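Bumping my old thread because nobody answered last time. Still need a sequence for this structure:
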Protein backbone atom coordinates (compact mmCIF):
# COMPACT_ATOMS: atom_id res chain seq x y z
CA UNK A 1 0.00 0.00 0.00
CA UNK A 2 1.32 3.45 -0.85
CA UNK A 3 2.35 5.52 2.12
CA UNK A 4 -0.56 7.60 3.35
CA UNK A 5 -3.19 5.69 1.39
CA UNK A 6 -5.85 4.65 3.87
CA UNK A 7 -7.45 1.20 3.38
CA UNK A 8 -10.95 2.73 3.18
CA UNK A 9 -9.79 5.22 0.55
CA UNK A 10 -8.02 2.46 -1.37
CA UNK A 11 -11.05 0.18 -1.28
CA UNK A 12 -13.35 2.91 -2.58
CA UNK A 13 -10.88 3.63 -5.38
CA UNK A 14 -10.90 -0.03 -6.41
CA UNK A 15 -14.68 -0.34 -6.20
CA UNK A 16 -15.02 2.80 -8.33
CA UNK A 17 -12.59 1.44 -10.89
CA UNK A 18 -14.12 -2.04 -11.30
CA UNK A 19 -17.67 -2.09 -9.93
CA UNK A 20 -19.10 1.41 -10.52
CA UNK A 21 -21.17 0.47 -13.57
CA UNK A 22 -23.17 -2.39 -12.04
CA UNK A 23 -24.99 -3.38 -8.90
CA UNK A 24 -23.28 -6.70 -8.30
CA UNK A 25 -22.27 -8.07 -4.94
CA UNK A 26 -18.63 -8.92 -4.18
CA UNK A 27 -17.54 -11.63 -1.72
CA UNK A 28 -15.91 -10.18 1.37
CA UNK A 29 -13.03 -12.63 0.95
CA UNK A 30 -12.36 -11.29 -2.55
CA UNK A 31 -12.22 -7.72 -1.27
CA UNK A 32 -9.87 -8.78 1.52
CA UNK A 33 -7.60 -10.49 -1.00
CA UNK A 34 -7.81 -7.48 -3.33
CA UNK A 35 -6.59 -5.20 -0.55
CA UNK A 36 -3.87 -7.72 0.30
CA UNK A 37 -2.43 -7.03 -3.17
CA UNK A 38 -1.57 -3.58 -1.80
CA UNK A 39 -0.16 -4.78 1.51
CA UNK A 40 -3.29 -4.35 3.63
CA UNK A 41 -3.53 -6.99 6.36
CA UNK A 42 -6.63 -9.14 6.75
CA UNK A 43 -7.67 -7.39 10.00
CA UNK A 44 -7.08 -4.01 8.33
CA UNK A 45 -9.18 -5.01 5.32
CA UNK A 46 -12.05 -6.30 7.44
CA UNK A 47 -11.94 -3.14 9.54
CA UNK A 48 -12.18 -1.05 6.35
CA UNK A 49 -15.22 -3.03 5.20
CA UNK A 50 -16.88 -2.61 8.58
CA UNK A 51 -16.21 1.14 8.71
CA UNK A 52 -17.42 1.77 5.19
CA UNK A 53 -20.61 -0.12 6.07
CA UNK A 54 -21.14 2.03 9.17
CA UNK A 55 -20.63 5.14 7.02
CA UNK A 56 -23.44 3.97 4.72
CA UNK A 57 -21.15 3.44 1.73
CA UNK A 58 -21.36 -0.37 1.63
CA UNK A 59 -24.26 -2.70 2.29
CA UNK A 60 -23.75 -6.31 3.28
CA UNK A 61 -25.74 -9.51 2.80
CA UNK A 62 -25.27 -13.16 3.63
CA UNK A 63 -25.78 -16.17 1.43
CA UNK A 64 -25.15 -19.26 3.49
CA UNK A 65 -21.99 -18.68 5.45
CA UNK A 66 -20.59 -16.15 3.02
CA UNK A 67 -20.78 -12.36 3.38
CA UNK A 68 -21.10 -10.17 0.31
CA UNK A 69 -20.81 -6.40 -0.13
CA UNK A 70 -22.09 -3.93 -2.68
CA UNK A 71 -21.87 -0.17 -3.09
CA UNK A 72 -24.85 1.76 -1.75
CA UNK A 73 -26.60 4.37 -3.87
CA UNK A 74 -24.95 7.06 -1.74
CA UNK A 75 -21.51 5.61 -2.42
CA UNK A 76 -22.27 5.21 -6.11
CA UNK A 77 -23.30 8.87 -6.35
CA UNK A 78 -20.17 10.04 -4.49
CA UNK A 79 -17.87 7.90 -6.62
CA UNK A 80 -19.55 8.81 -9.90
CA UNK A 81 -19.38 12.52 -9.10
CA UNK A 82 -15.76 12.24 -8.02
CA UNK A 83 -14.72 10.17 -11.03
CA UNK A 84 -16.41 12.60 -13.40
CA UNK A 85 -14.47 15.47 -11.84
CA UNK A 86 -11.18 13.57 -11.92
CA UNK A 87 -11.35 12.31 -15.50
CA UNK A 88 -12.62 15.62 -16.89
CA UNK A 89 -9.93 17.63 -15.12
CA UNK A 90 -7.61 19.28 -17.61
CA UNK A 91 -10.04 19.14 -20.53
CA UNK A 92 -10.79 22.38 -22.33
CA UNK A 93 -12.08 24.80 -19.67
CA UNK A 94 -14.67 27.45 -20.34
CA UNK A 95 -13.28 30.82 -21.48
CA UNK A 96 -12.41 33.05 -18.55
CA UNK A 97 -14.47 36.21 -18.12
CA UNK A 98 -11.75 38.07 -16.19
CA UNK A 99 -13.72 37.98 -12.93
CA UNK A 100 -12.29 36.81 -9.61
CA UNK A 101 -14.17 35.55 -6.57
CA UNK A 102 -12.69 36.92 -3.34
CA UNK A 103 -13.35 35.64 0.17
CA UNK A 104 -12.21 37.81 3.08
CA UNK A 105 -12.64 36.41 6.58
CA UNK A 106 -11.50 36.80 10.14
CA UNK A 107 -11.65 33.87 12.56
CA UNK A 108 -10.45 34.40 16.15
CA UNK A 109 -7.70 32.25 17.58
CA UNK A 110 -10.02 30.36 19.92
CA UNK A 111 -11.93 29.11 16.85
CA UNK A 112 -8.93 27.52 15.14
CA UNK A 113 -10.91 24.41 14.25
CA UNK A 114 -13.39 26.55 12.28
CA UNK A 115 -10.50 28.31 10.54
CA UNK A 116 -8.98 24.96 9.61
CA UNK A 117 -12.29 23.66 8.24
CA UNK A 118 -12.86 26.82 6.23
CA UNK A 119 -9.40 26.78 4.67
CA UNK A 120 -9.70 23.09 3.78
CA UNK A 121 -13.10 23.59 2.16
CA UNK A 122 -11.95 26.65 0.23
CA UNK A 123 -8.88 24.82 -1.03
CA UNK A 124 -11.07 21.93 -2.18
CA UNK A 125 -13.15 24.43 -4.19
CA UNK A 126 -9.98 25.69 -5.86
CA UNK A 127 -9.26 28.82 -3.81
CA UNK A 128 -5.81 29.87 -2.67
CA UNK A 129 -4.66 32.47 -0.11
CA UNK A 130 -3.45 35.72 -1.61
CA UNK A 131 -3.03 37.03 1.93
CA UNK A 132 -3.72 35.39 5.28
CA UNK A 133 -7.41 36.27 5.41
CA UNK A 134 -8.06 36.85 1.70
CA UNK A 135 -8.58 33.87 -0.61
CA UNK A 136 -9.18 34.05 -4.35
CA UNK A 137 -10.44 31.94 -7.24
CA UNK A 138 -10.77 32.77 -10.95
CA UNK A 139 -14.07 30.87 -11.04
CA UNK A 140 -17.66 32.06 -10.30
CA UNK A 141 -18.09 30.32 -6.96
CA UNK A 142 -19.82 32.90 -4.77
CA UNK A 143 -22.88 30.73 -4.03
CA UNK A 144 -20.72 27.71 -3.16
CA UNK A 145 -18.57 29.86 -0.87
CA UNK A 146 -21.62 31.30 0.88
CA UNK A 147 -22.91 27.80 1.52
CA UNK A 148 -19.58 26.85 3.12
CA UNK A 149 -19.52 30.00 5.26
CA UNK A 150 -23.01 29.19 6.52
CA UNK A 151 -22.20 25.53 7.12
CA UNK A 152 -18.94 26.19 8.95
CA UNK A 153 -20.58 29.10 10.83
CA UNK A 154 -18.00 31.79 10.11
CA UNK A 155 -19.14 34.98 11.82
CA UNK A 156 -16.99 37.56 9.98
CA UNK A 157 -16.62 37.13 6.22
CA UNK A 158 -17.22 38.94 2.95
CA UNK A 159 -17.58 37.48 -0.55
CA UNK A 160 -16.83 39.72 -3.53
CA UNK A 161 -16.80 39.17 -7.27
CA UNK A 162 -14.95 41.51 -9.61
CA UNK A 163 -11.91 42.31 -11.70
CA UNK A 164 -8.47 43.08 -10.36
CA UNK A 165 -7.80 46.80 -10.77
CA UNK A 166 -4.37 47.30 -9.27
CA UNK A 167 -1.48 45.43 -7.65
CA UNK A 168 1.72 46.02 -5.74
CA UNK A 169 5.02 46.48 -7.48
CA UNK A 170 6.20 42.91 -6.87
CA UNK A 171 3.19 41.02 -5.49
CA UNK A 172 -0.55 41.30 -5.27
CA UNK A 173 -2.02 40.11 -8.55
CA UNK A 174 -4.54 37.36 -7.65
CA UNK A 175 -2.60 34.76 -9.67
CA UNK A 176 0.26 35.28 -7.19
CA UNK A 177 -1.78 33.17 -4.76
CA UNK A 178 -0.46 30.15 -6.69
CA UNK A 179 3.19 29.19 -6.97
CA UNK A 180 3.09 28.50 -10.70
CA UNK A 181 6.66 27.23 -10.80
CA UNK A 182 5.82 24.64 -8.14
CA UNK A 183 2.62 23.65 -9.95
CA UNK A 184 4.56 23.22 -13.19
CA UNK A 185 7.04 21.06 -11.31
CA UNK A 186 4.24 18.81 -10.03
CA UNK A 187 2.99 18.24 -13.57
CA UNK A 188 6.47 17.54 -14.88
CA UNK A 189 7.17 15.11 -12.04
CA UNK A 190 3.89 13.31 -12.73
CA UNK A 191 4.76 12.98 -16.42
CA UNK A 192 8.23 11.67 -15.54
CA UNK A 193 6.73 9.01 -13.24
CA UNK A 194 4.20 7.89 -15.83
CA UNK A 195 6.49 7.74 -18.88
CA UNK A 196 8.25 4.47 -17.87
CA UNK A 197 4.88 2.85 -17.16
CA UNK A 198 3.57 4.00 -20.54
CA UNK A 199 6.66 2.63 -22.29
CA UNK A 200 6.27 -0.78 -20.64
CA UNK A 201 2.56 -0.77 -21.43
CA UNK A 202 3.25 -0.11 -25.10
CA UNK A 203 5.84 -2.89 -25.06
CA UNK A 204 3.31 -5.30 -23.59
CA UNK A 205 5.52 -6.05 -20.60
CA UNK A 206 3.11 -5.17 -17.78
CA UNK A 207 1.67 -8.16 -15.92
CA UNK A 208 -1.95 -8.14 -14.65
CA UNK A 209 -0.76 -7.69 -11.06
CA UNK A 210 1.57 -4.84 -12.01
CA UNK A 211 -1.22 -3.26 -14.07
CA UNK A 212 -3.55 -3.29 -11.07
CA UNK A 213 -0.95 -1.55 -8.91
CA UNK A 214 0.08 0.98 -11.54
CA UNK A 215 -3.49 1.85 -12.52
CA UNK A 216 -4.44 2.48 -8.91
CA UNK A 217 -1.32 4.62 -8.51
CA UNK A 218 -2.05 6.81 -11.51
CA UNK A 219 -5.65 7.39 -10.40
CA UNK A 220 -4.55 8.21 -6.86
CA UNK A 221 -1.97 10.71 -8.11
CA UNK A 222 -4.18 12.36 -10.72
CA UNK A 223 -7.03 12.94 -8.30
CA UNK A 224 -4.75 15.23 -6.28
CA UNK A 225 -4.05 17.52 -9.24
CA UNK A 226 -7.21 19.68 -8.89
CA UNK A 227 -6.00 20.59 -5.40
CA UNK A 228 -2.71 21.81 -6.89
CA UNK A 229 -4.09 23.48 -10.01
CA UNK A 230 -7.82 24.30 -9.94
CA UNK A 231 -7.82 24.54 -13.75
CA UNK A 232 -6.40 28.04 -13.71
CA UNK A 233 -7.41 29.92 -16.89
CA UNK A 234 -4.98 29.70 -19.76
CA UNK A 235 -5.01 33.50 -20.03
CA UNK A 236 -3.16 33.65 -16.70
CA UNK A 237 -0.60 30.91 -17.31
CA UNK A 238 2.92 30.93 -18.75
CA UNK A 239 3.58 29.52 -22.21
CA UNK A 240 3.89 25.75 -22.67
CA UNK A 241 1.88 24.95 -19.56
CA UNK A 242 2.16 21.15 -19.05
CA UNK A 243 -1.42 20.41 -17.92
CA UNK A 244 -2.54 19.07 -21.31
CA UNK A 245 0.51 16.81 -21.61
CA UNK A 246 -0.07 15.49 -18.09
CA UNK A 247 -3.72 14.78 -18.83
CA UNK A 248 -2.84 12.99 -22.05
CA UNK A 249 -0.43 10.61 -20.32
CA UNK A 250 -2.90 10.07 -17.46
CA UNK A 251 -5.58 8.98 -19.93
CA UNK A 252 -3.19 6.82 -21.93
CA UNK A 253 -1.83 4.99 -18.88
CA UNK A 254 -5.08 4.72 -16.91
CA UNK A 255 -7.13 3.49 -19.87
CA UNK A 256 -4.35 1.35 -21.31
CA UNK A 257 -3.86 -0.52 -18.04
CA UNK A 258 -7.58 -1.20 -17.73
CA UNK A 259 -7.78 -4.57 -19.45
CA UNK A 260 -4.74 -6.24 -17.81
CA UNK A 261 -5.73 -4.85 -14.40
CA UNK A 262 -9.25 -6.25 -14.86
CA UNK A 263 -7.73 -9.67 -15.55
CA UNK A 264 -6.10 -9.59 -12.11
CA UNK A 265 -9.27 -8.42 -10.36
CA UNK A 266 -11.26 -11.21 -12.03
CA UNK A 267 -8.65 -13.76 -10.96
CA UNK A 268 -9.10 -12.65 -7.34
CA UNK A 269 -12.91 -12.66 -7.53
CA UNK A 270 -12.90 -15.99 -9.36
CA UNK A 271 -11.03 -17.68 -6.52
CA UNK A 272 -14.07 -16.96 -4.31
CA UNK A 273 -17.04 -16.83 -6.69
CA UNK A 274 -16.35 -17.76 -10.34
CA UNK A 275 -19.92 -16.87 -11.26
CA UNK A 276 -19.24 -13.21 -10.35
CA UNK A 277 -16.15 -12.61 -12.49
CA UNK A 278 -18.23 -11.09 -15.30
CA UNK A 279 -19.50 -8.43 -12.88
CA UNK A 280 -16.01 -6.91 -12.86
CA UNK A 281 -15.91 -4.17 -15.49
CA UNK A 282 -13.30 -1.57 -16.26
CA UNK A 283 -14.00 2.14 -15.87
CA UNK A 284 -12.17 4.38 -18.36
CA UNK A 285 -11.89 8.11 -18.95
CA UNK A 286 -14.29 7.82 -21.88
CA UNK A 287 -16.85 5.66 -20.01
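Sorry it took so long. Here it is:
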Amino acid sequence: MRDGQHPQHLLLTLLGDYWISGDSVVPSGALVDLLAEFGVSTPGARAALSRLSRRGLLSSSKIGRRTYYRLTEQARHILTTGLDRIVSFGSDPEPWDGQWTYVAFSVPEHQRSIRHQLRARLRWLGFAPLYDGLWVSPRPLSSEVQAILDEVAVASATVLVGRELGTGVEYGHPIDAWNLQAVRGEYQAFIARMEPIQARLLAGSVSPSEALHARTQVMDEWRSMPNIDPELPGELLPAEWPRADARAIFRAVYDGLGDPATVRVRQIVGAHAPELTDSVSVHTTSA
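The two ends are 27 Å apart (CA to CA). Let me know if any region looks off to you.
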